[in-house]
């Protein structure tokens, strides 16, 4: 290597070092959430078996009677509702809200009980009991229908409201089973979700007390695509529950 080449190599290395030092690190995951210094998001594990990881916010003031329990889709977990600012918003609006990690997602270990329909209903029931969640409004997107639907058909009398967002598993139940559920229901789906939204809507329409909101310019995970619209319709529904 001659001096010229060595100098070039040295310059190249220096340049790389500068680039490395000078570049900002990977963006912090939480940087896009609406930070709210007044809301504390608590985290914990339920006492049950299996333990379920959850994130919880308490009402900042003027507590409402209903409590919101948020499930999640396949690519998500309880953190999604914190990143989206849903937990913080609900707290500010006077709601206790709890987001769960379903077994095998986020910080919850997989569970054998989750392999049967009855097991999943029982698991959710146990988690609500451990959390002392009463007057629950259950928010259930996509894959979480595996838990929410069996729980709904068995335990709807325990729910004050139900917010399905293109959930799975609706095909597993009959019109008669849906007709028996008097729980006030807000069906939310994204305009661009052409598969699961329509399939679930066909079934959920049999719930006697439901309203439907289609979020424009939103796909299957419509709450992620249009969080402001989603938050507005969710709050309107919650605020008007008897
Ligand atoms: C936090 O609470 C303080 C005192 O009540 C208030 O002045 C402030 O505006 C609140 N901040 C947010 C982001 O709500
Ligand atoms: C649907 O019902 C069948 C038969 O009862 C059951 O084996 C299956 O696990 C159910 N699927 C879901 C997703 O609940
Ligand atoms: C239907 O649900 C709404 C809330 O969305 C509630 O105000 C109303 O009382 C319910 N109607 C019946 C007949 O239960």
UniProtKB/TrEMBL annotation:
> Where does it reside?
Cytoplasm; Membrane
Q: What EC number(s) does its UniProt record assign?
A: 3.1.1.1
Q: Which GO terms describe its cellular component?
A: cytoplasm; membrane
What membrane topology is given? Single-pass type II membrane protein
Catalytic activity reported: a carboxylic ester + H2O = an alcohol + a carboxylate + H(+)
Q: What UniProt keywords are attached to this protein's entry? A: Cytoplasm, Glycoprotein, Hydrolase, Membrane, Signal, Signal-anchor, Transmembrane, Transmembrane helix
Q: Which SUPFAM superfamilies match?
A: alpha/beta-Hydrolases
Instruction: Name where it mostly resides.
Output: cytoplasm
- Has keyword Cell inner membrane? no
Asked if the record carries the keyword Signal, the reply is yes
Q: What does this protein do?
A: Possible role in granule neuron development.
Protein name from the UniProt record: Esterase OVCA2
Give the organism the record lists: Octodon degus
């Amino acid at each position: 290597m001659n001096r010229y080449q060595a100098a070039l190599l040295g310059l190249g290395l220096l340049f790389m070092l500068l680039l490395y030092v000078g570049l900002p690190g990977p963006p912090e995951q939480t940087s896009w959430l609406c930070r709210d210094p007044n809301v504390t998001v608590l985290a914990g594990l339920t006492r049950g078996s299996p333990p379920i990881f959850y994130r919880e916010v308490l009402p900042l003031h003027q507590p409402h009677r209903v409590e919101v329990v948020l499930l999640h889709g396949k690519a998500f977990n309880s953190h999604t509702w914190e990143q989206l600012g849903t937990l913080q918003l609900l707290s500010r609006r006077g709601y206790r809200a709890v987001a769960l990690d379903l077994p095998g997602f986020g910080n919850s270990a997989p569970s054998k009980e989750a392999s049967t329909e009855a097991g999943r209903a029982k698991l959710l029931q146990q988690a609500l009991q451990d959390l002392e969640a009463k007057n629950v409004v259950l928010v259930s997107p996509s894959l979480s229908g595996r838990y929410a639907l069996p729980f709904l058909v068995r335990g709807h009398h325990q729910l004050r409201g139900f917010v399905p967002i293109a959930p799975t598993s609706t095909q597993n139940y009959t019109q008669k089973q849906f007709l028996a559920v008097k729980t006030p229901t807000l069906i939310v789906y994204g305009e661009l979700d052409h598969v699961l939204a329509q399939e679930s809507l066909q079934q959920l329409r049999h719930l006697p007390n439901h309203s439907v909101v289609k979020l424009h310019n939103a796909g299957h995970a419509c709450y992620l695509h249009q969080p402001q619209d989603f938050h507005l319709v969710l709050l309107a529904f919650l605020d008007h529950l008897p």
